[in-house]
Amino acid sequence: MEIKDVEIPSEVKEVLSNEGISELRPAQEKSIKAGVLDGRNVLVCTPTASGKTLIAEMVGCKNIIEGKGKIIYIVPLVALANEKHKEFKRKYSKLFKIAISVGDFDSSDSYLIDYDFIICTAEKLDSLIRHHAPWLKYVTTVVIDEIHLLNDVSRGPTLEILITVMKQILENVQLIGLSATIGNPLELATWLDAILVQDDWRPVPLKKGVYYQGKIEFTNSPQ
Q1: 62-87: average pLDDT
Q2: Mean pLDDT of all residues in the chain?
Q3: Is 4 part of a structural domain of the chain?
């Protein structure tokens, strides 16, 4: 499927074209066919660098430009939040307002009422919810990057509670989970009430081998 055939605003198509993106990758096409652009919850489980982030970008951009509401993009690390903020601002700052909220300061960050695309860590979002941030009611899309961290002993409980609370306080919120490594994708998709999108395409073939005495003996064919 080509970008020109995707039902997203022309402004977004122009941005993607300037990024050299003209054709969708398999997981992106599968997600669109699963209804992600129509508001369906989707759990995307595909290899690293297979294009998962762009799926969330297209949904967020479409919803913001069409006036459907704000998007929250949850990441596990402050460094990753900074990276995403820099990338998204470079690409989309002319289309809508993008903010990052990751600090340790406990508050409702009321200034975020003026922003459309909000990137934050799970811990920060937990703080925002506990402080009853008034702008949360305008959120219609929540992206959970690295959602497999639900199984993490230290961060999993916070993330699980966050998702549960967001489903309760936000009417008809759309959830998009992204991960390269999920041990129980069907179970997680059922819990999220989401369509599972899986694909094994990767931009660089993966080979497995054993290095011994200066040589690598590959044990399987490329995947």
Answers
A1: 96
A2: 91
A3: no
* Helix, strand and coil percent figures for the chain, each rounded to 5: 45, 20, 35
Contacts of 138 (CB under 8 A, 6+ apart): 69, 70, 113
51 close to 185: Cβ distance less than 8 angstroms: no
CA distances from 21 to 73, 109, 130 (A): 22, 35, 40
Sign of CA dihedral 61, 64, 69, 74: positive
Pick from 149, 137, 139: which is nearest to 119 by CA?
139
The count of other CB atoms within 10 Å of the CB of residue 85 is 21
In a domain, 153, yes or no: yes
So what's the pLDDT on residue 105? 63
What are the tokens at 29?
Answer: 């096409």
Q: Name which of 1, 191, 165, 158 is nearest 76 in CA terms.
A: 158
Tokens matching residue 191: 């819990």
Return the pLDDT at 200.
85
**CA-to-CA dists, residue 61 to 32, 80, 120, 131, 202, angstroms:** 14, 20, 17, 27, 25
CATH number at residue 35: 3.40.50.300
* Domain that includes residue 114, residue range: 26-218
Count of domains for the chain: 1
